[in-house]
Design a protein that fits this description.
211 residues, alpha/beta, Rossmann fold, 6 helices, 20% strand
């Protein structure tokens, strides 16, 4: 039994890049274009699973209608709460503390913003959502529309790495990662096939390369 999961991060929301966490900003016009460009004409998914935040769910609903497939909401795939950082840009956060974000990425437990969801709690809810999704949709090809933080927690789970190292993983706007999960004798083996990429990549043939 093989399950294929494509993770796609939402495109740019209204207001541009900032630490928005669970603030429910919708996709901007640019963000919508990023998402449609990312999926193109790809039509192999059997189901879409989405975060309930509008920057994910609005696109998931539109794509599901266009492809004629089912979409379901997984509340556990909501982005982490960033507490007092929510709504602030990187420039605002580092204006008086130049090393603030560097320190956070290096140690997101000790350097967590006030009022933010605990990293262990975030990791636990995301991985619980992942297991529930696999239990319900084993053998399917799924598209999960979610957030950078969720993708980081899922990759940490798949690769067996500590969650506190996950903020060292880049997750670009509308970028796609693919994971396969093989099931045998009641056991699961997850494999990361690619990360922060695209569904199709045009490459020059060997004959066209300079010699």
């Amino acid at each position: 039994m093989l399950t294929t999961i494509d993770l796609i991060r939402h495109g740019e929301p209204v207001g541009g890049r900032k630490y928005r966490g669970q603030t429910d900003d919708p996709l901007s016009e640019k963000g919508w274009a990023q998402m449609w460009n990312a999926v193109g004409d790809y039509a192999q998914w059997q189901r879409i699973v989405t975060s309930p935040l509008s920057r994910c769910q609005a696109f998931a609903d539109a794509l599901a209608q266009k492809r004629g497939i089912t979409v379901s909401v997984e509340a556990r795939f909501k982005e982490v709460s960033f507490g007092v950082w929510e709504g602030q840009t990187s420039a605002q956060l580092t204006a008086h503390h130049p090393d603030l974000l560097f320190d956070f990425r290096r140690d997101p437990v000790a350097q967590r913003p006030a009022g933010a969801e605990l990293l262990a709690d975030f990791h636990a809810r995301v991985t619980a959502g992942w297991q529930a999704m696999l239990d319900a949709h084993s053998g399917e090809h799924l598209l999960v529309v979610c957030h950078a933080g969720v993708i980081r927690m899922l990759l940490a789970n798949v690769l067996g790495m500590p969650a506190h190292n996950a903020y060292r993983i880049q997750a670009g706007s509308a970028a796609i990662s693919r994971i396969t999960v093989e099931e045998r004798h009641g056991q699961r083996l997850a494999t990361l096939l690619f990360h922060d990429g695209v569904l199709t990549l045009q490459r020059k043939s060997q004959d066209s390369l300079p010699v």
